[in-house]
Amino acid sequence: MPTSKDNPVSQSAEPVFRTADWHEREAYDLVGIQYEDHPDLRRILLPDTWQGHPLGLDYDQDRPQIATLREHANPLEGDHRSAGDSNTMYINIGPHHPATHGVLHVETVVDGEQVVDLDSDIGYLHRCEEQMCQQGTYRHQIMPYPDRWDYISAGLLNEWAYARTAEDLADIEVPEYAQIIRTMGAELCRIASHMIALGTFALDVYGDFTAIFMYAMRDREIVQNILEDLTGQRMMFNYFRLGGVVWDLPEPREEFFEKIRDFIDELPQALEEYHDMITSNEILQARTVGTGVLPPEVAKSYGATGPVARGSGIDYDLRRDDSYGYYDELDWDVVVEDGCDNFSRLLVRMREVEESAKIIQQCVDLLEDWPEDERNIQANVPRTLKPEEDTEIYRAVEGAKGELGIYIRADGTDKPARFKIRSPCFSNLQTLPEMSEGEYIPDMIASLGSLDIVLGEVDR
Questions:
Q1: Contact 308, 253 (CB under 8 A)
Q2: What are the tens digits of pLDDT across the range 64-97?
Q3: What angle do CA 191, 192, 195 make, to 5 degrees?
Q4: Number of domains present in the structure of the chain
Q5: Does 208 fall in a domain?
Q6: 241 in helix, strand or coil?
Q7: Residue at a domain's end among 73, 92, 113
Q8: DSSP assignment, residue 49?
Q9: Which of these, 16, 38, 106, 347, has the minimum number of CB atoms within 10 Å of its CB?
């Protein structure tokens, strides 16, 4: 239920769903909503000394922000080791450390060798993407931003989240031909994202830079070349448009299809090499089997989605359960593992690469035979979109890392009144304490790597 503008106070949902913890802290931080009975209502993205709430309508952007050295001093200075016989110690992991997958600061308390408590300190990469989208027009100015949320090769998946939301908001029907192109491009992005997740995870767990990491980057590079042929860009694609895509497949089409088929044909052998080097590796098994355990009921409470949820035996995939694009016309399977540990999450991503390849193969077959006079890449979209005032919508897609959703509230103009990004990495990262408490620091690093977060999407 909406809160009063004069006194924005709401009841906390955290006692019912643990995932509400961070989401309510974010709403408090950026909008200024107070949540009664919240266990730890404090800022999450901005410094504690920040004045005001940046997404509030009454926020003064010209107000100076003052942060003294004393306010940012280490609060535990002189108290890193507890008195007496205890071995409790406070350790900073990150924010400048390769194992934190970006600028993540993990405040960790260990008792001897074991983790007893940790707190993920995020916000180092916060760019106020939601505010920027609120200042852009639906039709032309928002689409370039999604590429920059999860910038690890997942650009088309991000773009689809916005496209699906805005298209449903404006009742735009995408041509079937364009839906197939979108589906093919999205699955190429999923493979590229999973490849880098695979390579960096091996790097985290047992430091194999020369073989597995370079093999994964090699195969990702092939996908990047295909995506560059399709979109003209290697990372910030800006290829989707409301109602379709910006242009048709590259010419000559036969060469483009041949390049994709060559990649798909060689993928089984590459995956077999990965399994030889990774899943049968004794060091990796010792580090991942039985570590970072996330039971399904805990994963659901934290709102975990994507490979993190499916690695805990949760059979949920938006491509099937809230179908969009061309997925419901194709033959593919949802990958689920019930080990609930770091190893299961690794297996899910490796097996999902195979399913993505099946989807891409079917898309290529369809596009190859599509009649030339029916290749409609865009619907007829009005130049200016002005949804009715107070219209609300939430739509999501199955991103590489989980459910990437967008909430939009319209105000009758050509710009959103409210634009909220539901980041899968943001929710998935909340599970890290549950997986790490009672385990060793190396196990915590493996658990963090198995979440496959990117801080650009966590902080936005």
A1: no
A2: 887 666 655 555 555 555 555 567 888 888 787 7
A3: 85
A4: 2
A5: yes
A6: strand
A7: 73
A8: T
A9: 16
Q: What is the pLDDT of residue 408?
A: 93
Range of the domain at 37: 1-73
278 and 420 share one domain: yes
DSSP secondary structure string for all residues of 77-103: TT-SB-STT--EEEEEE-SS-GGGTSS
3-state helix, strand and coil shares in percent for the chain, rounded to the nearest 5: 45, 10, 45
Q: Name the helix (H) or strand (E) containing 404.
A: strand 402-409
Q: Which token pair is 367?
A: 């596009």
Considering the domain architecture, whether residues 242 and 309 belong to the same structural domain is answered as yes
Give Cα 216 distance to the centre of its chain. Answer: 20
Helix (H) or strand (E) holding 244: strand 244-245
The whole-number average pLDDT for the span 419-425 is 92
Three-state helix/strand/coil letters over 153-202: CCHHHHHHHHHHHHHHHCCCCCCHHHHHHHHHHHHHHHHHHHHHHHHHHH
Q: What is the mean pLDDT of residues 343-366?
A: 94
Say whether both 267 and 416 belong to one domain: yes
Give the model confidence (pLDDT) of 364-406 as tens digits.
999 998 888 889 989 888 888 888 888 999 999 999 999 999 9
Residue 86 domain flag: no
Residue 95 domain flag: no
Query: Cβ(402)–Cβ(304) under 8 Å?
Result: yes
The 10s digit of each residue's pLDDT in 155-214 is 899 999 999 999 999 999 999 999 999 999 999 999 999 999 988 888 888 876 668 888
| Distance in angstroms (rounded) separating the CA atoms of residues 154 and 148 | 9
Q: What CATH number is attached to the domain comprising 150?
A: 1.10.645.10
CA distance 104 to 96: 8
| pTM of the complete model | 0.90
